[in-house]
Amino acid sequence: MSLRRSWARLTAIWNRRRLDEELEDDIRVHLALAEEEAAAQGMPADAARLEARRQFGGIAQMKEEHYDRRSFRFLETMAKDLRYGLAGLWRAPGFAVVVIGVLGLGIGGTVAMFSVVDAVLLKPLPFPAPDRIVAVWEAPRPGVVNAVSVRQFLAWQRLSREFMTLTAEQDFSAAINYNNQPIRLAGKRVTADYFNVFGTRVALGRVFRSTEDQPGAEPVVVLSHSAWQTHFGGDPNILQKRVALDGRSYQVIGVLEPGAFDRDEAQFWTPLLFDQAEKSSALKWLTLYGRVGNGLSIEQAGQKMQAIYSALAEDSSMDGDKTYTAVVRPLSELLLGNNLQRSIAVAFC
Amino acid sequence: MSKQQTDIPYGTLDLLILKTLETMGAMHGYALARRIEQVAGRILQLSQGSLYPALVRLQQEGWIQTEWGVSDTNRKVKFFSLTKAGRKQLEVEIQNWDKATALVARFLETTT
């Protein structure tokens, strides 16, 4: 079938009524002409009408054929059914509202559940080799999570270097000035290895250098892709710009690739510097993440970390306790919770 | 019992309509039906109504066009006429027909 004809048949669905009338017209005129001719040959009127009908053949049959030729019959029928259905709903609006509501809730609920399953069970973390990323903390007893002091972190980082890259973060929100509109953005202070641990790449510029979390370093900031788009209009010259965070000027050095940290609220990252007072304080305020090197399982890394912790517990300046343990857990398990993942798997699969 | 009066051979109604319109020029449905009947004589049994679905199809293909006119008896009727594409299609149909009949003829020769 030619394209032209397919198109004609498709459009015929909308012109159905006009085409129907035309067909009726054609038939009526045809019969009238036949009748006139028969009458002109001297046939009585009744006989002339019958003769015309006889010659024409089955009208119903011909109409059926006409419909088949004219358009796609199933579409036409479907349109008719649809119209009938809508008319039915219109006639009983209460029923319609209930039905639409029930369907809407049902579909919405299913979508919501699937979204949860998708996020929790199916979609991997948006980082390369996510199974190597771990969270590290001190546990006074199982199930309790302690933050980590600065001197603990620095010692752990130094001693675990051969099998794990450790980084610390602290939540930090700051007011930025953009288009003379001050807005408050959620961000994080992180040590220089942070993006190496998460394996995040940049769309523009670079991530932190190892010197940039050391005292005296120039203040710099890395922006999330969405912050760059939303608050800086996707400015391609952003790397030449400085941004004021809480009134302090920071040089923009990089924009992360889209997708990285999308689940996180953080929109920017600045280096986490420790001053002398913090380095000698027992205050525990850091959250630690690490990337376990290849060739070592997470359990083995945990055992090594425990050995380090136990050794350091002898030293009273290390804020440890012989009865506490060091815990190394995969990040995925942590975000979702092993139990949550299991119960959702049980519920849906 | 052999059947002398036949239905239109499958697929040839198009050809008959196109050819008739080519020879006669624009004409309305009834006249077209009468003309085909006259030329065919007693060989053909045509339900005049069956022309209309065929006309719809030819029109959808763009081979014929319609316009309103007035019949000899002063009735407003739809006139059908051949388009340029229709003329071309007629040639194609004639060639196809020639091929088909030549093929059949060859078989009849060899088997008798």
Sum up the structure in keywords.
heterodimer, A: 349 residues, alpha+beta, eleven-stranded mixed β-sheet, 13 helices, 11 strands, 48% helix, 21% strand, B: 112 residues, Arc Repressor Mutant, subunit A, three-stranded antiparallel β-sheet, 3 strands, 14% strand
What does this structure look like?
The complex is a heterodimer of chains A (349) and B (112). Chain A is an alpha+beta fold. Helix content of chain A is 48%, strand content 21%. Chain A contains 13 helices and eleven strands. In chain A, strands 1, 2, 3, 4, 5, 6, 7, 8, 9, 10 and 11 form an eleven-stranded mixed sheet that branches. The longest helix of chain A is centred in the N-terminal third of the chain and has 30 residues. Chain A is elongated. Chain B has a single domain, classed as Arc Repressor Mutant, subunit A. Chain B has a three-stranded antiparallel sheet with strand order 1-3-2. In chain B, a hairpin with a 5-residue loop joins strand 2 and strand 3. The mean pLDDT of chain B is 84. At the A-B interface, helix 1, helix 2 and helix 4 of A face helix 2, helix 3 and strand 3 of B.
Topology, element by element:
The complex is a heterodimer of chains A (349) and B (112).
Chain A: H1 3-12, H2 16-40, H3 45-56, H4 59-70, H5 73-91, H6 93-122, E1 133-139, E2 148-149, H7 150-159, E3 164-178, E4 181-190, H8 194-198, E5 202-205, E6 220-223, H9 225-231, E7 242-245, E8 248-256, E9 268-271, H10 276-279, E10 284-292, H11 298-313, E11 325-330, H12 331-336, H13 338-348
Parallel strand pairs in A: 4-9, 6-8
Antiparallel strand pairs in A: 1-10, 1-11, 2-10, 3-4, 3-10, 5-8, 6-9, 7-8
Chain B: H1 13-24, E1 27-28, H2 29-40, H3 51-61, E2 64-70, E3 76-82, H4 84-111
Antiparallel strand pairs in B: 1-3, 2-3
Helix pairs in contact in B: 1-4
Mean pLDDT of chain B: 84
Residue share in helices of chain A?
Answer: 40-55%
Strand content of chain A: 15-25%
Give the number of helices of chain B: 4
